[in-house]
Design a protein that fits this description.
Length: 445
């Protein structure tokens, strides 16, 4: 069930003392989704450890079961996926309800697009507003057909291609979801499917496809990265270790940075270089982050991050950094509200089509808490400084987990409480967020 149907549970944080201690971050959402999807397309048993057990990923597990894969969680928390091989999925006899998950629905559309079967997709109130044309159009190029609401919105029905054709597709927006959907559809097509990207987006699909034995190459020619997949591979089951999600780590990292006297160790954070834009930005602002015990797990770089509180100064965040921190702008704006001076974030058009219009929602919420912000079509300026967050507001989080967590953390440094209208959406990506923050010293009221 998606969080949209539950009664809203308002909440605000109270800071009892500086944040202190160790915390382990839940598994990476992007990698968890992909492990279930590609495990379902591989031959044999894939065992996944460190899986994120949030609502979005559980939705993907249910969808892949409906498509014919066998998926079980054992008592030790390991997930076992018995795949059906590329070409082996079956037509689901139910609507695939993907809840709040953009990654879930878009990547599964890609997977199904090369099968001659009919699949129906829907989602919660947030997902039904989000644009699906960005994946439907390239999937139509390869032979799939869609019936959908105005503006390619869910609910949607898809009739997959009888004879899927490989294609070369230039991404109109920097999006790993679109890139992955096209590549996953290309698994069913003969020959080479190529995706061209100008701004590099996260490459978890490419890494995991290779890990399962597919031939995937990425080469830079002039201004484009050409990502090429050879179709109709035999994917072989492989064991996956999911690293901690840097997008979830972002919350305790910023919280410890802005709460004076804090010292927190965040354990097992994935540091894929296409995901570390927030950490780079925080360091430029003066944050005290140390990356220790650097290692590789499941083909991804990982480290523990020690965070001590620090005084921050506003910076200019360049637009080309956006793909590497696209989900982190809400929590960066919280850091910016406390930082001395002006922080300018540019190149934010994609924030308008996330779980909410995050650009508008952040500006509105910060303003309600007394912060001086300026919202542009594609940029956000936050004028911060000590004592600039008044609080005394209830912020609407619009079924958006990252807004919910960001505003709870803003309440740790506000003069009066910041209340959010509903904590329930947090379960989509960070089910133990409130517990983890409480162990570090922040209590939910
Ligand atoms: C994701 C890609 C990003 C990100 C989302 C997860 C993925 O979306 O915002 O939370 O797993 O591929 P876009 O690719 O649409 O930017």
């Amino acid at each position: 069930m998606s969080s949209s149907s539950a009664t809203p549970q308002p909440g605000s944080f109270v800071l009892a003392q500086p944040l202190n201690g160790d915390c382990a971050i839940p598994g990476d959402k992007s990698i968890s989704h992909r492990s279930l999807m590609l495990g379902s397309l591989a031959i044999g048993e894939t065992v996944v450890s460190g899986m994120l057990e949030g609502e979005d990923v559980i939705g993907t597990a249910n969808a892949m079961r409906a498509l014919g894969a066998e998926i079980e969680r054992d008592e030790k928390g390991l997930w076992h996926v018995w795949g059906r091989g590329v070409g082996g999925l079956i037509e689901p006899d139910q609507v695939l309800d993907m809840g709040n998950a953009g990654t879930g629905v878009r990547l599964i559309m890609g997977i199904c697009a090369g099968y001659p079967m009919t699949v129906f997709f829907t989602g919660d109130g947030s997902l039904r507003k989000r644009p699906m044309g960005r994946v439907a159009k390239p999937l139509e190029n390869m032979g799939a057909q869609f019936i959908c609401r105005d503006g390619y919105r869910l609910p949607m029905g898809m009739v997959g291609a009888k004879k899927p054709m490989p294609q070369t597709y230039e991404l109109p927006v920097p999006s790993a979801q679109v890139k992955s959907a096209v590549l996953f559809a290309g698994l069913m097509a003969p020959g080479t499917t190529t995706v061209l990207e100008t701004e590099h987006s996260r490459d978890h699909s490419e890494r995991m496809l290779r890990f399962f034995g597919a031939d995937v190459r990425a080469e830079q020619y002039n201004k484009h990265l050409h990502v090429q997949l050879q179709g109709q591979p035999n994917l072989k089951a492989a064991n996956i270790v999911v690293p901690g999600d840097p997008s979830s780590a972002a919350f305790p990292v910023v919280a410890a940075t802005i709460c004076p006297g804090s010292d927190v160790l965040v354990i097992g954070v994935g540091l894929n270089p296409l995901r570390t834009g927030l950490f780079d930005t925080l360091i430029e602002m003066g944050a005290d982050l140390t990356f220790i015990n650097q290692r590789e797990e499941g083909g991804e770089p990982v480290a523990d991050v020690r965070v001590r509180s620090a005084e921050l100064t506003g910076v200019e965040v360049p637009p080309e950094r956006a793909p590497s921190m696209i989900d982190e702008y809400p929590i960066l704006s919280v850091a910016a509200a406390v930082a001395q001076g002006k922080t300018t974030m540019r190149g934010l058009a994609e924030l308008r089509v996330k779980e909410s219009d995050r650009l508008a929602a952040m500006a509105r919420g910060l303003e309600a808490c007394g912060v001086d912000v300026e919202e542009g079509e594609e940029h956000l300026v936050v004028n911060g400084g000590e004592g600039s967050v008044v609080g005394d507001a209830t912020v609407e989080t619009e079924l958006d987990h990252r807004l919910a967590m960001s505003f709870l953390i803003l309440g740790l440094v506000s003069k009066k409480p910041v209340t959010i209208d509903d904590v329930a959406p947090i379960k989509t990506s960070f089910p133990n967020f409130l517990d983890l923050m409480s162990k570090l010293g922040a209590k939910l009221r």
